[in-house]
Specification:
The complex is a heterodimer. Chain A is mainly α. Chain A has four helices and no strands. Helices cover 57% and strands 7% of the residues of chain B. Chain B contains 17 helices and six strands. The longest helix of chain B is centred in the N-terminal third of the chain and has 29 residues. The chains are: A mainly alpha, B alpha/beta. The interface between A and B is large, with 84 and 112 residues.
């Protein structure tokens, strides 16, 4: 990786961190658990790296390790989004507020 | 041809993820945001599968299927009370995936000129953090699940060992970065990560779990971000940075809610056994508790015009959220105003109590944070404490000798009457006496919270 690419990666990281700080500060304590399970699902994006490890022409050991990584990351993405939705479905206001 | 569009897929995914988090700023838009996030993830995965690098699917497809099945099963059938365990497990999977990707990348690149110093640094951090998150989260899971004692486990020189291991790993990292061909040192970094994960979580008590889970959340995110650095993939960097900041922010909020610093949570295990000055005077004997029968408490509830319910971890243990809501409904039917007061660190993870109350159909506009409701206790007829302890301990306000002194707590003691539901009069594993329990306006009803609440409800209906 060249210096430019490194600098670019750092730019992305720092800016995403700031953006994350701004956005996440606005999440009310009410939704802290869905926030955690949701970010968990999002960080399952390491699936992208795992897929390459499991499917590239890398030799059996690497592919098997990749397979375990794909499984673990898929559990997080699929499970994470599903359970976040299951939780969010439960949050509702007083029924009388609805017309 | 299609190859050149893959980065675009990653960009779309990144935008979706940010919108997911933005949606969480209100319960109204949160579900749509979550759906958008899953669509973004799908786009990123499909894009990745188009990569020319990927030549065989014999490991990919079984992994995707197995992972989806396990993930779906875990989300559909797990009870809401077990949410902290579920989250801890998924942090460990996240850590494991990141660590394995790092190892594979190292195997592929070692000996080639592509393995630059910078890439080596990213890989080492990724593997170290991944391993640490993996075992640390497994330990947290074990503690929550009761497989390992929830009490803090401490031994002599513990902090010195942990700190020196941490710096040892740092030193190894420098060596590996200077000479990437030293594979033994690289793997040793991972092994140290695994060990630090175990040793760092072992001394942490159950009451500190919200901070620890948040910190592990942050580490899992940072491990993902370093994967992004190693692979030069911006979507990984962005998602990892979002996850990392989220976990960090939550752990800061949790620490603040306990009036403790990070260092204090990580290195100063609660109730280490040698601090005997914590016991409140007169609280040693069970006789001084104002033990009440269910009938006495019913009388108070029946007469109350206003009630505030303070749930704690005990509500989760006894799965009493539905029974709580049923009682509240009966009282509301009689004209009582019912509110719920949720402390940021009630339960074992951030927002734990909110999810349980939501499960029991408690409308979220009846649930209040510490700052929003604390002045109301003095004007309230009755407070019902369901399995909460530290967050209602007045010692935090007026006993400088207490280990929780300075922690913001509910002014429960200012209410006209307080009913405390508790399994037994034993102080929690943290060993901190609760002066609230011996106050004259407090009545203790011992036993399983769910059973007691059901008794109240039946009696009040008559």
């Amino acid at each position: 990786m060249s210096n430019d690419a490194l600098l670019f990666a750092l730019y992305v990281f720092v800016l995403a961190g700031f953006l994350g700080y701004q956005v996440i500060s606005k999440v009310p304590p009410l939704l802290h658990t869905p926030l955690m399970s949701g970010t968990n699902a999002i960080s399952g994006i390491s699936l992208v790296g795992s897929l390459v490890a499991a499917g590239a022409k890398y030799g059996t050991l690497s592919n098997v390790l990749g397979f375990v990584a794909v499984t673990a990351a898929t559990i997080n993405t699929v499970g994470g989004f599903l359970i976040t939705d299951r939780m969010l479905r439960m949050f509702r206001k007083r029924p009388t507020d609805k017309p | 041809m299609i190859q050149s569009y893959i980065p675009l897929a990653y960009l779309i995914a990144s935008v979706c993820f940010i919108l997911t988090l933005q949606g969480l700023s209100s319960p109204k838009h949160a579900r749509a945001g979550n759906l958008l996030g899953s669509i973004g993830m799908l786009i990123a995965v499909v894009g990745t599968l188009m990569l020319a690098k990927i030549v065989s699917f014999q490991w990919i497809i079984p992994g995707l299927i197995l992972g989806s099945l396990i993930g779906a099963a875990m989300s559909i059938w797990i009870p809401m009370t077990k949410m902290p365990e579920r989250i801890a497990l998924s942090h460990s999977f996240g850590g494991l995936a990141a660590a394995l990707v790092g190892v594979v990348e190292y195997i592929q690149l070692s000996g080639t000129p592509e393995l630059t110093h910078f890439k080596m640094a990213a890989l080492s951090i990724e593997v170290f953090l991944g391993c640490l998150t993996f075992t640390g989260s497994l330990m947290a899971f074990g503690k929550l699940q009761g497989l390992i004692t929830g009490a803090p486990v401490t031994w002599k020189g513990q902090n010195a060992i942990n700190i020196s291991m941490f710096f040892g790993a740092l030193l190894l990292l420098v060596f590996v970065v200077l000479d990437p061909s030293r594979s033994a040192l690289f793997y040793l970094t991972g092994v140290i990560g695994l060990t630090v994960g175990v040793l760092a979580v072992l001394p942490i008590g159950g009451a500190d779990m919200p901070v620890v889970i948040s910190l592990l959340n942050s580490y899992a995110g940072l491990a993902s971000a370093s994967t992004g650095f190693a692979l030069g993939n911006p979507v990984l960097i962005i998602a990892g940075a979002l996850d990392g900041t989220s976990g960090f922010l939550l752990s800061m909020k949790m620490s603040q809610a306990m009036n403790r610093s990070f260092a204090n949570v990580l290195f100063g295990a609660f109730g280490t056994g040698d601090s005997s000055g914590a016991a409140a005077p007169g609280a040693a004997a069970g006789a001084s508790y104002n033990l009440a029968t269910a009938e006495d408490a019913e009388g108070v509830l029946d007469a109350a015009q206003s009630l505030i319910v303070v749930p704690g971890y005990g509500m989760a243990v006894s799965q009493a959220q539905h029974a709580t809501r049923e009682l509240a409904q009966v009282l509301e039917h009689k004209g009582t105003t019912v509110k719920y007061a949720v402390h940021p660190v009630a339960g074992r993870m951030p927002g734990h109590m909110n999810v349980l109350l939501a499960e029991a159909n408690v409308p979220y506009d009846q649930i209040f944070d510490l700052d929003d409701i604390n002045d109301e206790f003095a004007r309230t007829d009755a407070v019902l404490v369901v399995g909460a302890n530290d967050v209602v301990n007045p010692a935090a306000k007026d006993n400088p000798g207490s280990p929780i002194y300075g922690m913001p707590v509910f002014n429960v003691d200012q209410a006209r009457a307080v009913i405390v539901l508790k399994r037994s009069v034993n102080p929690g594993f943290a060993g901190i006496e609760n002066e609230l329990f011996i106050r004259p306006n407090t009545m203790m009803v011992l036993g399983d919270a769910k059973k007691t609440l059901r008794e109240f409800t039946t009696a009040l209906k008559e």
